[in-house]
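Page 37, top half.
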Amino acid sequence: MSERAEAVIRAWAAEAGFDVCGITSADAVAGAGPALLAYLAEGRHGEMAWMEGRAAERAALSALWPGAKSAVVCGLNYGPEDDPLALLERRDRGAVSVYARHRDYHDVVKAKLKRVARRIHGEMGAAVKVFVDTAPVMEKPLAERAGLGWIGKHSNLVSRGFGSWLFLGVIATAMELAPDAPHAERCGRCRRCLDACPTAAFTGPWRLDARRCISYLTIEHAGPVPRALRPLIGNRIYGCDDCLAVCPWNRFAQAAAETKLKAREDLRAPPLAELAELDDAAFRARFSGSPVKRIGRARFVRNVLIAIGNSGDAALAAAAEARLSDAEPLVRGAAVWALARLQPWDVFCRRAAHIEEGDAMARAELDAARQEREGRADGG
């Protein structure tokens, strides 16, 4: 295939709104398979069973689709307008990860990929398949091989032009295309991303234990968040940007163009008290079209209550107390934890006295709070 095909595809990607596009072979990341299997064997993926179910297919696009010859990897800039870490100081507000402040990126990226894929199929006659995150495709290693950037020590893609702020999507095609040169790793001795992690989720460069990651805990983890990690979450109610935001390569990044990706104003710094009041219908309405909606109301309000418990703001105790009678056990348990941190012990005990014996999750939180209180009283 002539170079013209690659150039045309890149032009189509730019017309569709992508900021960067690269090409690699369908089996370019076959060597990543053993590393993935080792990661799964160590249990560092936590409850993300979907990673195990199709692990063999993740090794290479050709394993997922035997007809695939090439991968067209596209990147969409979602860089924030300001420092997302500044919001962590506003403890009465919830911090939503930058990527989730827009319309669901799965929908945005997939729509753009389909525009490009239709042209490859229609004008070049090649079979195509489109993948955005939910399929068993290793987008980041493919992007590195396609020259879009390199995988940083935080295990995310880093770009010289867009820092750590790129959404990725892949078009697999049966057409043979000339691959771009892989990008060299340029982290050097820097370890800012590793040191910035609030929960010490990195056991070393390129070694993330998802079970301690705030993004995992607030999005993927379904049950109560481990008590020891809750105070470290701060006011992060959906995801975490710390390791991404401190990357030195972000100095070359730019805010995403609003014509391509517009952030929702109501997700920039939402009040915690307001979010705690959301019932199921209000939650669905507020987060319609947002990736936040995918975790469901109970898990989200659990996150909000953890943030309320970390706020140190006694004025938010009323919002937590209102959730003691919530229909969801997960929410009631988080409300007990938040209230115990915000109110004097005698006041808390009076407020929590009506918790029913059969309410296992709330009772467990109440007992744990008592044990912690007794430990402090004993000097433990």
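Page 37, bottom half:
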Amino acid sequence: MTEAVFHERQRLELCAVHALNNLLQSHVFSQQHAEEICRGLAPDSRFNPHRSVLGTGNYDVNVIMAALQTLDYAAVWWDKRRSLESLVLSEIFGFILNIPSRISLGFLSLPITRKHWIAVQQIHGIYYNLDSKLKAPVKLGGPKELREFLQECISQGSCEVLLVVRKDVEEAKLWISNEERVP
């Protein structure tokens, strides 16, 4: 019997919230939580720079990082010049990627792209693409397929990769192989 994989679907511009929840495999964060984080990041701002002016979401990386910190996780920016082989996958909780995504209106796909947050997580030994725009999670496979997926995303240009790790793993830099660690 296969265990169910938690997967929130896209609503408004809440892909950052969905990516966090999909990564955590539970409904931990809401739009209200993200709004509270935004206010905390820019308490004196008339227009909060960490979200859409319209209040529909579109949260930036600072909101994601602050949300993860509340759970004793850290987000580490991946240096795309490094080899993905140097990742110590056993020390990485999951991945959040910021990828280009086509805008669509119903069935009509526009020739415009915007940035979109997605989560990639290992569940029961298998890595999944948990993009909230997908109808269901997409099975990637094992470490080899994960690295191929990440490389494909990176090679498409405008993609950022965040490694989500426990704070102690970040501090000790355990997420990267010994040869790659800078003293």
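Margin note: The beta strands are 73-77, 94-105, 108-123, 126-129, 138-141, 160-166.
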